[in-house]
Hints:
Elements: H1 18-49, E1 59-65, E2 67-89, E3 95-100, E4 107-108, E5 113-117, H2 120-155, H3 161-194, E6 196-198, E7 203-205, E8 215-216, E9 225-240, H4 244-251, E10 258-262, E11 269-278, E12 288-295, E13 307-324, E14 329-331, E15 334-340, E16 346-350, E17 352-357, E18 360-365, E19 372-376, E20 387-390, H5 392-397
Parallel strand pairs: 1-20
Antiparallel strand pairs: 1-19, 2-9, 2-13, 3-5, 3-8, 4-7, 5-6, 7-9, 9-12, 10-11, 10-13, 11-12, 13-18, 14-15, 15-16, 17-18
Amino acid sequence: MPQSDTPQKLTSPQQTSPSVKGKRRWLWLIAVILIVAGVIVIRRIVASHAPDTKTPRPTPVVAVPARKEDVPVYLNGLGSVVPINAVTVKSRVDGQLLEVRFTEGQDITKGSLLAVIDPRPFQVQLTQAEGQQLRDQELLRNAQLDLERYKTLWDQDSIPRQQLDTQQALMRQYEGAVKIDQGQIDSAKLNLTYCQITAPVSGRVGLRLVDPGNMVHATDAGGLVMITQDRPITVVFPLPEDSLPKVLARMRTREPVTVEAWDREMKQKLAMGTLLTVDNQIDPATGTVKFKATFPNSGNELFPNQFVNAKLLVETKREAVIIPAAAVQRGPQGAFVFLLNADKTVAMRPVKPGVTQGDDITINEGLAPGNLVVVEGAERLRDGGKVEPKDPAKAEEGRPGRAK
Protein backbone atom coordinates (compact mmCIF):
# COMPACT_ATOMS: atom_id res chain seq x y z
CA MET A 1 0.00 0.00 0.00
CA PRO A 2 1.36 3.41 -0.81
CA GLN A 3 2.17 5.64 2.15
CA SER A 4 1.17 9.25 2.23
CA ASP A 5 3.90 11.82 2.58
CA THR A 6 1.61 14.28 4.45
CA PRO A 7 2.57 14.46 8.23
CA GLN A 8 -0.18 13.70 10.80
CA LYS A 9 -0.65 15.66 14.15
CA LEU A 10 -0.60 13.46 17.29
CA THR A 11 -2.77 14.54 20.29
CA SER A 12 -0.87 14.49 23.72
CA PRO A 13 -2.70 12.90 26.67
CA GLN A 14 -1.63 15.82 28.91
CA GLN A 15 -3.35 18.36 26.73
CA THR A 16 -6.93 19.05 27.80
CA SER A 17 -9.56 21.09 26.13
CA PRO A 18 -10.71 24.35 27.76
CA SER A 19 -14.19 22.90 28.43
CA VAL A 20 -12.77 20.09 30.60
CA LYS A 21 -10.64 22.54 32.63
CA GLY A 22 -13.67 24.68 33.34
CA LYS A 23 -15.68 21.73 34.62
CA ARG A 24 -12.91 20.80 37.06
CA ARG A 25 -12.74 24.33 38.48
CA TRP A 26 -16.49 24.26 39.19
CA LEU A 27 -16.23 20.88 40.92
CA TRP A 28 -13.46 22.17 43.22
CA LEU A 29 -15.43 25.29 44.03
CA ILE A 30 -18.53 23.27 44.91
CA ALA A 31 -16.49 20.94 47.17
CA VAL A 32 -14.97 23.87 49.07
CA ILE A 33 -18.40 25.45 49.53
CA LEU A 34 -19.81 22.16 50.91
CA ILE A 35 -16.92 21.74 53.34
CA VAL A 36 -17.27 25.30 54.66
CA ALA A 37 -21.00 24.85 55.04
CA GLY A 38 -20.50 21.56 56.93
CA VAL A 39 -18.02 23.15 59.34
CA ILE A 40 -20.45 26.00 60.05
CA VAL A 41 -23.31 23.58 60.71
CA ILE A 42 -21.17 21.41 63.06
CA ARG A 43 -20.00 24.46 65.02
CA ARG A 44 -23.58 25.63 65.50
CA ILE A 45 -24.67 22.18 66.69
CA VAL A 46 -21.79 21.98 69.18
CA ALA A 47 -22.42 25.52 70.38
CA SER A 48 -26.10 24.75 70.95
CA HIS A 49 -25.25 21.77 73.20
CA ALA A 50 -22.30 23.36 75.07
CA PRO A 51 -22.89 24.51 78.70
CA ASP A 52 -23.22 28.15 79.41
CA THR A 53 -19.87 29.23 80.81
CA LYS A 54 -21.30 32.44 82.12
CA THR A 55 -23.48 30.57 84.68
CA PRO A 56 -21.38 27.78 86.33
CA ARG A 57 -23.20 24.70 87.60
CA PRO A 58 -23.58 24.25 91.38
CA THR A 59 -20.96 22.06 93.10
CA PRO A 60 -22.34 18.82 94.58
CA VAL A 61 -21.56 18.57 98.30
CA VAL A 62 -22.50 16.51 101.35
CA ALA A 63 -23.28 18.39 104.55
CA VAL A 64 -24.06 17.12 108.06
CA PRO A 65 -25.24 19.04 111.13
CA ALA A 66 -22.96 19.78 114.08
CA ARG A 67 -24.09 17.96 117.22
CA LYS A 68 -23.59 18.37 120.95
CA GLU A 69 -22.41 15.38 122.97
CA ASP A 70 -20.20 14.38 125.88
CA VAL A 71 -16.77 13.58 124.45
CA PRO A 72 -14.31 11.29 126.27
CA VAL A 73 -10.69 12.38 125.91
CA TYR A 74 -8.21 9.50 125.62
CA LEU A 75 -4.45 9.18 125.64
CA ASN A 76 -3.23 6.43 123.32
CA GLY A 77 -0.14 4.27 123.66
CA LEU A 78 1.10 1.03 122.12
CA GLY A 79 1.55 -1.45 124.94
CA SER A 80 2.38 -5.07 125.67
CA VAL A 81 0.40 -7.59 127.71
CA VAL A 82 2.36 -8.75 130.76
CA PRO A 83 1.17 -11.54 133.11
CA ILE A 84 0.96 -10.89 136.84
CA ASN A 85 3.47 -13.70 137.41
CA ALA A 86 5.54 -15.73 134.97
CA VAL A 87 7.37 -18.65 136.59
CA THR A 88 9.70 -21.20 135.03
CA VAL A 89 9.22 -24.43 136.98
CA LYS A 90 12.54 -26.19 137.61
CA SER A 91 13.62 -29.24 139.54
CA ARG A 92 15.34 -28.54 142.85
CA VAL A 93 17.02 -31.96 142.95
CA ASP A 94 18.86 -34.13 140.45
CA GLY A 95 17.13 -37.27 139.29
CA GLN A 96 15.12 -39.06 136.65
CA LEU A 97 11.76 -37.57 135.64
CA LEU A 98 9.21 -40.34 136.16
CA GLU A 99 5.83 -38.66 135.52
CA VAL A 100 4.33 -35.50 134.09
CA ARG A 101 0.95 -34.78 135.65
CA PHE A 102 -0.14 -31.72 133.64
CA THR A 103 -1.58 -31.15 130.18
CA GLU A 104 -0.06 -28.47 127.98
CA GLY A 105 -2.19 -25.32 128.07
CA GLN A 106 -4.05 -26.45 131.19
CA ASP A 107 -5.28 -24.00 133.83
CA ILE A 108 -3.93 -25.07 137.20
CA THR A 109 -4.12 -23.85 140.78
CA LYS A 110 -1.32 -23.19 143.22
CA GLY A 111 -0.02 -26.44 144.78
CA SER A 112 -1.15 -28.72 141.93
CA LEU A 113 1.18 -31.68 141.29
CA LEU A 114 3.05 -31.13 138.02
CA ALA A 115 5.75 -33.82 137.88
CA VAL A 116 7.37 -36.62 139.88
CA ILE A 117 11.10 -37.34 140.14
CA ASP A 118 12.44 -40.76 141.17
CA PRO A 119 12.50 -40.57 145.03
CA ARG A 120 14.41 -43.80 145.77
CA PRO A 121 17.93 -42.28 146.06
CA PHE A 122 16.64 -39.80 148.63
CA GLN A 123 14.77 -42.50 150.55
CA VAL A 124 18.08 -44.35 150.88
CA GLN A 125 19.75 -41.18 152.16
CA LEU A 126 16.95 -40.76 154.70
CA THR A 127 17.39 -44.32 155.96
CA GLN A 128 21.13 -43.83 156.34
CA ALA A 129 20.66 -40.56 158.20
CA GLU A 130 18.12 -42.08 160.57
CA GLY A 131 20.44 -45.04 161.31
CA GLN A 132 23.36 -42.73 161.99
CA GLN A 133 21.18 -40.69 164.34
CA LEU A 134 20.18 -43.80 166.32
CA ARG A 135 23.86 -44.78 166.73
CA ASP A 136 24.85 -41.29 167.87
CA GLN A 137 21.90 -41.07 170.24
CA GLU A 138 22.98 -44.28 171.98
CA LEU A 139 26.54 -43.02 172.26
CA LEU A 140 25.18 -39.80 173.74
CA ARG A 141 23.05 -41.70 176.25
CA ASN A 142 26.02 -43.80 177.32
CA ALA A 143 28.17 -40.68 177.66
CA GLN A 144 25.50 -39.09 179.86
CA LEU A 145 25.47 -42.13 182.16
CA ASP A 146 29.26 -42.10 182.42
CA LEU A 147 29.15 -38.39 183.22
CA GLU A 148 26.78 -39.05 186.14
CA ARG A 149 29.13 -41.71 187.49
CA TYR A 150 32.12 -39.41 187.13
CA LYS A 151 30.32 -36.67 189.01
CA THR A 152 29.68 -39.06 191.90
CA LEU A 153 33.30 -40.15 191.95
CA TRP A 154 34.44 -36.52 191.76
CA ASP A 155 32.26 -35.69 194.73
CA GLN A 156 33.97 -38.59 196.57
CA ASP A 157 37.34 -37.26 195.43
CA SER A 158 38.03 -40.56 193.67
CA ILE A 159 38.94 -39.23 190.19
CA PRO A 160 40.81 -36.18 188.97
CA ARG A 161 39.02 -33.15 187.63
CA GLN A 162 40.47 -33.66 184.17
CA GLN A 163 38.67 -36.96 183.72
CA LEU A 164 35.35 -35.35 184.59
CA ASP A 165 35.95 -32.49 182.14
CA THR A 166 36.91 -34.93 179.38
CA GLN A 167 33.69 -36.83 179.84
CA GLN A 168 31.65 -33.62 179.70
CA ALA A 169 33.35 -32.66 176.43
CA LEU A 170 32.68 -36.11 174.98
CA MET A 171 29.00 -35.81 175.85
CA ARG A 172 28.76 -32.42 174.08
CA GLN A 173 30.43 -33.94 170.98
CA TYR A 174 27.77 -36.62 170.86
CA GLU A 175 25.06 -33.98 171.25
CA GLY A 176 26.51 -32.17 168.23
CA ALA A 177 26.63 -35.40 166.24
CA VAL A 178 22.98 -36.02 166.97
CA LYS A 179 22.09 -32.54 165.73
CA ILE A 180 24.10 -33.14 162.54
CA ASP A 181 22.22 -36.38 162.03
CA GLN A 182 18.93 -34.56 162.47
CA GLY A 183 19.98 -32.06 159.81
CA GLN A 184 20.78 -34.88 157.40
CA ILE A 185 17.41 -36.43 158.08
CA ASP A 186 15.66 -33.13 157.43
CA SER A 187 17.66 -32.67 154.21
CA ALA A 188 16.70 -36.12 152.97
CA LYS A 189 13.05 -35.48 153.78
CA LEU A 190 13.20 -32.13 152.00
CA ASN A 191 14.68 -33.78 148.92
CA LEU A 192 11.86 -36.30 149.00
CA THR A 193 9.44 -33.38 149.06
CA TYR A 194 11.20 -31.81 146.07
CA CYS A 195 10.65 -35.05 144.15
CA GLN A 196 7.00 -33.96 144.00
CA ILE A 197 7.11 -30.80 141.84
CA THR A 198 4.07 -28.60 142.51
CA ALA A 199 2.82 -25.36 140.96
CA PRO A 200 4.17 -22.30 142.80
CA VAL A 201 1.36 -20.06 141.42
CA SER A 202 -2.01 -20.43 139.77
CA GLY A 203 -2.17 -19.88 136.05
CA ARG A 204 -1.81 -21.55 132.69
CA VAL A 205 0.98 -23.99 131.88
CA GLY A 206 2.81 -23.74 128.59
CA LEU A 207 4.46 -26.38 126.43
CA ARG A 208 6.33 -29.23 128.14
CA LEU A 209 10.08 -28.71 127.91
CA VAL A 210 11.24 -32.14 129.23
CA ASP A 211 9.74 -35.55 128.55
CA PRO A 212 9.43 -38.34 131.15
CA GLY A 213 12.47 -40.59 131.38
CA ASN A 214 15.03 -37.80 131.04
CA MET A 215 17.47 -36.84 133.76
CA VAL A 216 16.82 -33.41 135.22
CA HIS A 217 19.13 -31.27 137.30
CA ALA A 218 18.71 -28.31 139.55
CA THR A 219 21.13 -26.37 137.35
CA ASP A 220 19.15 -26.87 134.10
CA ALA A 221 18.48 -23.50 132.43
CA GLY A 222 15.25 -24.37 130.61
CA GLY A 223 13.27 -25.96 133.40
CA LEU A 224 10.25 -28.22 132.98
CA VAL A 225 7.47 -25.82 132.01
CA MET A 226 6.45 -22.14 132.14
CA ILE A 227 3.43 -20.98 134.14
CA THR A 228 1.84 -17.60 133.42
CA GLN A 229 -0.68 -16.06 135.79
CA ASP A 230 -3.12 -14.32 133.43
CA ARG A 231 -6.25 -13.77 135.56
CA PRO A 232 -5.98 -10.90 136.16
CA ILE A 233 -3.41 -9.68 133.63
CA THR A 234 -1.67 -6.36 133.06
CA VAL A 235 -0.81 -4.10 130.12
CA VAL A 236 2.30 -1.91 130.20
CA PHE A 237 2.26 1.04 127.79
CA PRO A 238 4.24 4.30 127.40
CA LEU A 239 2.82 7.82 127.15
CA PRO A 240 4.58 11.14 126.44
CA GLU A 241 5.90 12.89 129.51
CA ASP A 242 3.66 15.89 128.72
CA SER A 243 0.64 13.70 129.54
CA LEU A 244 1.92 12.82 133.01
CA PRO A 245 0.43 15.84 134.88
CA LYS A 246 -3.07 15.11 133.52
CA VAL A 247 -2.92 11.45 134.52
CA LEU A 248 -1.50 12.17 137.98
CA ALA A 249 -4.22 14.76 138.58
CA ARG A 250 -6.82 12.17 137.63
CA MET A 251 -5.24 9.56 139.93
CA ARG A 252 -5.33 12.00 142.87
CA THR A 253 -9.11 12.05 142.69
CA ARG A 254 -9.06 8.44 144.00
CA GLU A 255 -11.49 7.44 141.27
CA PRO A 256 -10.69 4.46 139.03
CA VAL A 257 -9.01 5.55 135.79
CA THR A 258 -10.47 3.56 132.90
CA VAL A 259 -8.13 1.96 130.37
CA GLU A 260 -9.29 0.21 127.20
CA ALA A 261 -7.30 -2.37 125.25
CA TRP A 262 -7.79 -2.38 121.46
CA ASP A 263 -6.28 -4.49 118.70
CA ARG A 264 -3.44 -3.23 116.52
CA GLU A 265 -5.76 -1.79 113.87
CA MET A 266 -7.90 0.04 116.46
CA LYS A 267 -11.01 -1.65 115.11
CA GLN A 268 -11.95 -4.02 117.96
CA LYS A 269 -12.04 -3.32 121.67
CA LEU A 270 -10.57 -6.32 123.47
CA ALA A 271 -10.98 -5.58 127.17
CA MET A 272 -11.75 -2.94 129.80
CA GLY A 273 -9.54 -2.35 132.82
CA THR A 274 -8.28 0.21 135.29
CA LEU A 275 -4.97 2.02 135.72
CA LEU A 276 -2.84 0.29 138.37
CA THR A 277 0.27 2.42 138.73
CA VAL A 278 2.81 4.64 136.96
CA ASP A 279 6.55 4.15 136.74
CA ASN A 280 8.82 6.16 139.04
CA GLN A 281 10.96 7.70 136.29
CA ILE A 282 10.85 9.04 132.74
CA ASP A 283 12.85 7.33 130.02
CA PRO A 284 15.29 10.05 128.85
CA ALA A 285 15.89 8.29 125.52
CA THR A 286 12.24 8.42 124.41
CA GLY A 287 10.73 11.11 126.66
CA THR A 288 7.99 8.74 127.78
CA VAL A 289 6.83 7.25 131.06
CA LYS A 290 5.42 3.74 131.50
CA PHE A 291 1.95 3.03 132.86
CA LYS A 292 0.53 -0.28 134.03
CA ALA A 293 -3.16 -1.19 133.84
CA THR A 294 -4.85 -4.32 135.13
CA PHE A 295 -7.60 -6.28 133.36
CA PRO A 296 -9.78 -9.11 134.75
CA ASN A 297 -9.23 -11.19 131.59
CA SER A 298 -11.96 -13.59 132.63
CA GLY A 299 -12.58 -14.61 129.04
CA ASN A 300 -8.89 -14.79 128.03
CA GLU A 301 -9.27 -11.71 125.83
CA LEU A 302 -5.61 -10.80 126.36
CA PHE A 303 -2.60 -13.06 125.90
CA PRO A 304 0.89 -12.63 127.41
CA ASN A 305 3.30 -10.64 125.20
CA GLN A 306 0.44 -9.54 122.92
CA PHE A 307 0.74 -6.03 121.46
CA VAL A 308 -2.35 -3.87 122.05
CA ASN A 309 -3.35 -0.22 121.79
CA ALA A 310 -4.10 1.17 125.24
CA LYS A 311 -6.55 4.08 125.55
CA LEU A 312 -6.47 5.87 128.88
CA LEU A 313 -9.46 8.07 129.74
CA VAL A 314 -8.20 11.33 131.26
CA GLU A 315 -11.35 13.47 131.11
CA THR A 316 -14.80 13.87 129.57
CA LYS A 317 -15.79 17.13 127.87
CA ARG A 318 -19.44 17.82 128.66
CA GLU A 319 -21.83 18.99 125.88
CA ALA A 320 -19.08 19.66 123.34
CA VAL A 321 -19.83 20.64 119.73
CA ILE A 322 -18.75 17.78 117.44
CA ILE A 323 -18.36 17.57 113.67
CA PRO A 324 -16.60 15.09 111.36
CA ALA A 325 -12.88 15.79 111.18
CA ALA A 326 -13.10 15.81 107.36
CA ALA A 327 -15.09 19.07 107.51
CA VAL A 328 -12.19 21.09 108.97
CA GLN A 329 -10.01 22.77 106.33
CA ARG A 330 -6.65 24.48 106.88
CA GLY A 331 -5.59 27.78 105.35
CA PRO A 332 -3.19 30.67 105.88
CA GLN A 333 -5.58 32.24 108.39
CA GLY A 334 -6.05 28.99 110.33
CA ALA A 335 -8.76 26.35 110.47
CA PHE A 336 -12.18 26.92 108.89
CA VAL A 337 -15.29 25.09 107.69
CA PHE A 338 -17.86 25.72 104.98
CA LEU A 339 -21.38 26.31 106.29
CA LEU A 340 -24.35 25.38 104.11
CA ASN A 341 -26.93 28.21 103.95
CA ALA A 342 -30.64 27.89 103.28
CA ASP A 343 -30.25 29.40 99.76
CA LYS A 344 -27.85 26.58 98.79
CA THR A 345 -24.74 28.69 99.10
CA VAL A 346 -21.76 28.15 101.37
CA ALA A 347 -20.02 30.54 103.74
CA MET A 348 -16.49 30.21 105.07
CA ARG A 349 -16.47 30.12 108.90
CA PRO A 350 -13.25 30.25 111.00
CA VAL A 351 -13.24 27.74 113.87
CA LYS A 352 -11.01 26.65 116.76
CA PRO A 353 -10.68 22.84 116.73
CA GLY A 354 -10.33 20.86 119.94
CA VAL A 355 -9.49 17.20 120.48
CA THR A 356 -9.83 14.53 117.80
CA GLN A 357 -11.40 11.20 118.69
CA GLY A 358 -11.64 8.73 115.84
CA ASP A 359 -13.35 10.35 112.84
CA ASP A 360 -14.80 13.25 114.88
CA ILE A 361 -13.34 16.47 116.23
CA THR A 362 -14.58 18.92 118.84
CA ILE A 363 -14.98 22.62 118.01
CA ASN A 364 -14.23 25.02 120.84
CA GLU A 365 -15.33 28.19 119.00
CA GLY A 366 -17.08 29.10 115.76
CA LEU A 367 -19.98 26.63 115.51
CA ALA A 368 -23.28 25.96 117.19
CA PRO A 369 -25.23 22.70 117.33
CA GLY A 370 -27.31 22.24 114.19
CA ASN A 371 -25.03 24.19 111.81
CA LEU A 372 -24.66 22.33 108.53
CA VAL A 373 -20.99 21.83 107.63
CA VAL A 374 -19.68 20.48 104.34
CA VAL A 375 -17.83 17.17 104.73
CA GLU A 376 -17.46 16.20 101.04
CA GLY A 377 -16.65 18.46 98.10
CA ALA A 378 -15.14 21.29 100.18
CA GLU A 379 -11.91 21.31 98.15
CA ARG A 380 -13.79 22.83 95.15
CA LEU A 381 -15.69 25.49 97.08
CA ARG A 382 -15.24 29.21 97.56
CA ASP A 383 -16.95 31.64 99.89
CA GLY A 384 -20.47 32.38 98.63
CA GLY A 385 -20.40 29.66 95.94
CA LYS A 386 -23.50 27.80 94.80
CA VAL A 387 -23.79 24.15 95.81
CA GLU A 388 -26.07 21.20 95.27
CA PRO A 389 -26.59 19.32 98.56
CA LYS A 390 -26.67 15.53 98.38
CA ASP A 391 -28.20 13.04 100.80
CA PRO A 392 -25.42 11.79 103.14
CA ALA A 393 -26.93 8.28 103.24
CA LYS A 394 -26.98 7.95 99.45
CA ALA A 395 -23.48 9.38 99.19
CA GLU A 396 -22.29 6.77 101.69
CA GLU A 397 -23.89 3.95 99.68
CA GLY A 398 -22.34 5.20 96.47
CA ARG A 399 -18.77 4.94 97.74
CA PRO A 400 -16.59 2.07 96.49
CA GLY A 401 -16.82 -0.98 98.72
CA ARG A 402 -20.17 0.07 100.26
CA ALA A 403 -23.24 -2.11 99.92
CA LYS A 404 -25.95 -0.53 97.86
